[in-house]
Predict the structure.
Amino acid sequence: MKRVHKSGEQSSPRDSAEPVSELTTNRLSVYLRCLNVLDAAGVRTVSSQALAEQFHLNAAQIRKDLAYFGEFGVRGVGYYVKELRRHLRQILGIDRGVSVAIMGAGNLGLALADYPGFRDEGFEIVAMFDTAREKIGHRSRAGVPIHDLRDLRKVVRRERIRIAVIAVPAGAAQSVVNTVAAAGIRAILNFSPGTVKVPPGVKLKSMDLTVSLESLSFFLAQADPTT
Amino acid sequence: MKRVHKSGEQSSPRDSAEPVSELTTNRLSVYLRCLNVLDAAGVRTVSSQALAEQFHLNAAQIRKDLAYFGEFGVRGVGYYVKELRRHLRQILGIDRGVSVAIMGAGNLGLALADYPGFRDEGFEIVAMFDTAREKIGHRSRAGVPIHDLRDLRKVVRRERIRIAVIAVPAGAAQSVVNTVAAAGIRAILNFSPGTVKVPPGVKLKSMDLTVSLESLSFFLAQADPTT
């Protein structure tokens, strides 16, 4: 994966240009989703132009994004769907499967545990964690076991869990994040509202649902202040 | 709300600088969340410095963001918590409550319908919509009614629904988004994976859970390519 350090500044990984990196990986994810559709439909090759038209994307952006990670296109052919799909899965680190834990077995945690899209994309929700005694030992509808939070470190090691999803109430979020980081997990997807801090070397992505709704509400208030 | 058009370019609303606007409103949401905590704790005034320290934020950024919308700070006092909270709710357009519909009454839709944070922040999930006959007429645990998708336009008008949350399978997303836009809803929060298109004048925010996990997986693959 050295290929991504293109600038020659070995000491300055791409993470320093965080927003770009984040937007690029998000687009790679979208391309992968499109290629999955094409592959399932039996399409063998696709041009950046056809990909762009079919999925409402930007052809020049596709070529630029993919060229950044290597030369995948073939002149006169475009991209081989299966091959590009395999490359993207490799770049995104999901080619060998990634084990994920859900922290919190409430409504949201249970819905996330059974979210059907994850497994198709190489993610496997292998465990949930909670502190409520009446939940521990049970399973989600899809069969994900609910463990005692106190067993986190043990289960993380045994199941090789690499990503934790935080779905606990806001008041418990920071404490759970600390526990998760202390157990050696270095990538966290946070669904709890409010700010949480992570130690250096741990990557945090926050999805505050209320923040998203407020951003939409702000748009409506500006677009039409009288209603 | 004219105050937000500061540039003098009346013909170019802030939407053209979308990423800035989006980041700013996201920060306003975070400040509001912090002020809620302080207000609940009985704190009456707070300085930008104290706010920053307590919630791991940036004091200069707070002052800049808030000054953009008016002069809320008082020299030697800081901000009045209740007053600033009221102003922020007004700026975000949630002071009079915003009615929200959830499209799709599956696991995710049901979890979102009962997400406890929404109502506290001025959002009310007033309806869910589905096409499955066995779901129509039932309610979520918290009591949100599940309507027939065919009644969308009627219910939107009656309940003054202004935001729709898309929680249907990927294959149905674009068709549901089209139906929602045709019913007059101009703000959409999309949880379905893949790309969807909205007509001009409709604001779309996408929260693809798989994309978020892939961005974390990409971070792990880069940080430690050998594992």
Summary: Chain A has two domains: 17-91, 98-210. Residues 17-91 of chain A form a domain with the Arc Repressor Mutant, subunit A fold (CATH 1.10.10.10). The beta strands of chain A are 45-46, 79-80, 98-103, 123-130, 146-148, 161-166, 187-190, 203-206.
